[in-house]
């Protein structure tokens, strides 16, 4: 069995191809796939509930294998605007979420008045709120959709750190099937 975790924003067209390739090569191996928030996936690997997981992280995790580098950005709709002197509205995933944690930590170090006005556990919900112009959020640059714009440096927003998609492995040994699946993840474009 291979127990694999992945965040929703890493799925795209990569995951179906990866799963298809693996299940064709190893039809006798059972898969257990968990789609969740990166911080939850990290805890699941640490608790021996997953063999492998792709997570979004800040650079510098010593034991992490970097799959792709990107950056966190502030994002709003093309039509978003807020009147001067008004509290900035934000839309976030619920805690624990690295995007939320990065955004709140950055905002706490400023004089910007802000409030959370929308919370959703789904990317679709968050994207809908942003597209409707309800607020600002933190995303990785690769996730910005048409109709959205990066607002780094606007509205008094501080800069955000770089990010990485990394592959985590369960501490201890792994089965041959887990090792082969890990190799396929590393070969993803």
Automatic annotation (TrEMBL):
Residues 2-186 form the LysR substrate-binding domain. The keyword Ribosomal protein does not apply. Pfam families: LysR_substrate. Signal peptide: none annotated. It comes from the Bacteria. The keyword Chaperone does not apply. InterPro entries: LTTR, LysR_subst-bd. Keywords: DNA-binding, Transcription, Transcription regulation. PANTHER family: HTH-TYPE TRANSCRIPTIONAL REGULATOR LRHA-RELATED (PTHR30579:SF7), TRANSCRIPTIONAL REGULATOR (PTHR30579). This is LysR substrate-binding domain-containing protein. The lineage of its organism: Bacteria, Pseudomonadati, Pseudomonadota, Gammaproteobacteria, Lysobacterales.
């Amino acid at each position: 069995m291979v127990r694999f975790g992945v965040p929703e924003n890493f799925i795209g067209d990569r995951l179906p191809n990866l799963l298809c390739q693996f299940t064709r090569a190893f039809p006798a191996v059972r898969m257990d796939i968990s789609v969740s928030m990166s911080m939850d996936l990290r805890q699941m690997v640490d608790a021996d509930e997953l063999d492998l997981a792709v997570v979004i992280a800040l650079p510098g995790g010593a034991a992490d294998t970097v799959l792709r580098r990107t950056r966190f950005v502030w994002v709003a709709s093309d039509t978003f605007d807020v009147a001067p002197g008004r509290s900035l509205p934000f839309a976030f995933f619920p805690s624990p979420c690295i995007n939320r944690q990065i955004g709140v930590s950055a905002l706490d170090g400023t004089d910007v008045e802000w409030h959370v006005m929308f919370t959703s556990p789904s990317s679709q919900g968050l994207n809908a709120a942003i597209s409707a112009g309800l607020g600002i959020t933190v995303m990785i640059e690769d996730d910005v959709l048409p109709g959205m714009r990066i607002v780094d440096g606007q509205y008094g927003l501080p800069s955000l750190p770089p990010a990485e998609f990394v592959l985590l492995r369960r501490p201890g040994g792994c089965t041959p099937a887990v090792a082969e699946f890990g190799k396929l993840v590393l070969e993803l474009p």
